[in-house]
Amino acid sequence: MSGTFMGMPAFPDAAREAVRDPVLRANLRHATHTIRDKRARAVAELADWERLRAAGKAVKDHALRHLDRHLVQLEEAVTAAGGTVHWAADADEANRIVTGLVLATGHREVVKVKSMATQEIGLNEALEAAGIAAYETDLAELIVQLGHDRPSHILVPAIHRNRAEIRDVFTAEMGRWGRPAPEGLGDDPRELAEAARLHLREKFLRAKVGISGANFMVAETGTMVVFESEGNGRMCLTLPETLISVVGIEKVVPTFRDLEIFLQTLPRSSTAERMNPYTTMWTGLGPSRGADGDGPSAFHLVLLDNGRTDTLADEVGRQALRCIRCSACLNVCPVYERAGGHAYGSVYPGPIGAVLSPQLRGTGSAIDASLPYASTLCGACYEVCPVAIDIPEILVHLRERVAQGGPVTLGGVRVRIRPARGHTAERAAMRAARLLLDRPGALRAGERLLARARRLRPRRLPGPGRAWTDGRELPQLPAESFRTWWARERGERA
Amino acid sequence: MRAALFVTCVNDALYPRTGIAVVRLLERLGVGVDFPAAQSCCGQPQYNTGYRRESEPLLRRTAEAFAGYPYVVTPSGSCAAMVRTHYPRIGRLAEREGRGPGLAALAEELVPRVFELTEFLVDVLGVTDVGAYFPHTVTYHPSCHGLRGLGLGERPQRLLRAVKGLDLVELPDAGECCGFGGTFAVKNPDVSVAMGTDKTGNAVGTGADVLCGADNSCLAHLDGILRRRGEAVRTLHLAEILASTEEEPLT
Ligand code: SF4
User: Fold this and answer.
1) Domain with A112 in it: what CATH number?
2) pLDDT tens digit string along A381-417?
3) Which residue owns the Cα nearest ligand 1 atom 8?
4) A382, A57 in Cβ contact below 8 A?
5) In CATH, what number does B137-243 get?
6) Domain limits of chain B?
7) How many Cα atoms within 13 Å fall on the side-chain side of residue A347?
8) pTM exceeds cut of 0.80
9) Does the C-beta of A147 come closer than 6 Å to ligand 1?
């Protein structure tokens, strides 16, 4: 399992495999369509959905605009409540901090709440390198971890697996990590869940260190909020002696009241539930400062930047930081449905991944330079996003960055990056097309040429044109252009 | 009433019959049609692929070509959406990047006058029954830029339902993208064709003879897949169906 996905091929190549895998296609289609339809019904129940959406957007924008102030306020509140706040500029620093904190406890096992931030930084690998075993406790994450796999969905990381595959993974792997799967395990969801429950219960009762992320952090009170559906997260958040939360700095909201909006929009958008099943909130060590033995006696908050401040500097791209990771955009995305989550080469797949990864990681690698093009700009993601992130707008903006280069902020410094490799021919073609289209005389001549090519009736094109003709016939060329018809018919020069 | 036809570059070069259908349809409804010869492409391929600067001269050309026309009608939801949603942004950015307020002003002046064909028919002319005749079973694919970009809603279906002899059958998952996506079709051909194959499969499943749309670029992609697979369903632009009458049926 790799958290960083380095050396991924570009999106089109990675997607090709998924497109040709009929089992994966069927799993994804079934899963995304089911969640998609349920979400639509859950959202339609709220008469004020559009206002909630606008409010969520406004709150997040406000929080981001004054991020510096809110983070300091948060730090003060968490510290006052007995927690310790650490600041991590990048993945390495965050991993170092967390590893150091775990080693200092003397324990070598941690239980984890599902967290995107820790996957983003590759924390499990860093812990493993330090001799610490990290156990994922979210059911789907457990499936991914036991299967030596990578997550392919934000909310349902094992969406690419079906029941039979999960049974096989449990049977083969559970025993190597702890309590083995029961003899003769079937693929009934209840049986699978029970096997996971027994396997995990042992870990919860034994672990002294828990690691989590958070969905929200309230600046005013220092309260951390985790949304989950299984209760396994709550086990990790309450049973261990030490709790370490790694959270992206963009997760801060100014006031406790702001949660009202997201308590409504997040569950409906992600699981299509009216109310989230397990919402855990904690403020530092609580009023007793951990002395009552209820909950952890040490709490560490690691605030993670890892490209977020640089992203915040970009006027168009910064709206991606509003994301509350509901995954609604994945579930409606026709490209995600065919390409699968792995093709996006990041823990953030789908439309949000296509705009987030090239900002957090830059557009230097093949996969990151190809992600802005992994969309038809159909707009389905924007339509469902509960914080109204205009993903198509960011995609076009990032395409511009990839194709033309331009200003970006790297490590707080404004620099101009050069175009990504492989766009020279395209740039020339786009320019040539524009020159042709901007000169009516040349355009008419071009159209006449095209009309003459009609007799050739090509079925396959060479070079880049093959990308069209490999799967499609070419349009049948007309005898004359509209312009020519008009001139003939109306006697006007056109 | 007079309107200027913004035929779009794709229709001009590849689908003149769609432009001709718009002319016949509008004239039949009593609208005089002009074809400003200076028009060309809206600049969408450049803009959407990341070459915004290359789309600026085309914005200027389009705005200048249609200057003074109270109604600019286009049989392409995608190009109408380009003008309506992206021209103002291109103008704003050009100004911010120090190229003056000219493009922004041109965009602002053009945007309210541009109408996608079904908007013009339903909202401006106030007709849904255009007197068309087309005795076939038809299913309709609402392209994304029409559906979500312009919010065309049921306008195309209302027009189709009023066509004499036409049996409109619902396309399953109609709102889902067909997979064309401009340069996406060649940059991500596998996903593009997979999406198009699902879309055409749904169309074939309806039993319709015709898969109708209001964007010929999407239809070119879908038609290419249908023909490669040897399917009998044919694709037709909405304008061609609406132009067809009992006296002059579409052949
Ligand atoms: S971008 Fe919007 S829809 Fe997608 S995961 Fe984030 S909040 Fe949800």
Assistant:
1) 3.40.50.10420
2) 999 999 999 999 999 999 999 999 988 998 889 999 8
3) A326
4) no
5) 3.40.50
6) 2-124, 137-243
7) 20
8) yes
9) no
